[in-house]
Amino acid sequence: MESIAIALITAAGSILASIITVVSVIITSNKNNAAVDAKLDKQQAVIETKIEELTREVREHNNFARRMPVVEEKIAVANHRIDDLEEEAKRRRDAG
Questions:
Q1: Gap between the terminal Cα atoms of the chain
Q2: How much is the average pLDDT of 44-54?
Q3: How far apart are CA 55 and CA 4, in angstroms?
Q4: Distance between CA 76 and CA 83 in Å, rounded?
Q5: H helices within the chain, ranges in order?
Q6: What is d(CA 52, CA 83) in angstroms, rounded to the nearest whole number?
Q7: Average pLDDT value for residue range 64-86
Q8: Would the CA dihedral through 90, 93, 94, 96 be positive or negative?
Q9: Neighbour-count burial of 66, counting CB atoms closer than 10 A to its CB (0-12 exposed, 13-18 middle, 19+ buried)
Q10: What is d(CA 64, CA 71) in angstroms, rounded to the nearest whole number?
Q11: Distance (Å) of CA 18 to CA 11, 14, 23, 31, 65
């Protein structure tokens, strides 16, 4: 009878130790998951900020790219006008 009681006490101790181990693992796992979640949230915020900045820069570049042909055309017109004025000045010098 005494050996049965010792076996039951030993089994109960083993079960209790197992339960404590499982609870400890769950608690540790939850803490680690919270830390990982916090790191992921921070990284996500950094990525979103970088994407917003890149989007702004792309829009700025696209706006510049749209305006460049207009600027190039105005430069061509100005160069043509300068050529015309130089020719007119040369004609006046030669005539006068």
A1: 139
A2: 98
A3: 75
A4: 11
A5: 2-95
A6: 46
A7: 94
A8: positive
A9: exposed
A10: 10
A11: 10, 6, 9, 20, 68
Q: What is the mean pLDDT of residues 48-72?
A: 94
Chain position carrying tokens 């005494």: 2
Q: Residue written as tokens 């130089």? A: 86
Answer yes or no: is pLDDT of 79 > 70. yes
How far is the CA of 56 from the CAs of 8, 44, 96, in angstroms? 71, 18, 58
CA distance 57 to 64: 10
Tokens standing for residue 92: 């006046």
* pLDDT above 90 (res 4): no
The DSSP output letter for 1 is: -
Q: Residue 8 has what pLDDT?
A: 83
The one-letter code for the residue type at 77 is V
Q: Which residue, chain included where needed, has tokens 């079960």?
A: 15
Per-residue confidence (pLDDT) for residue 96, from 0 to 100: 67
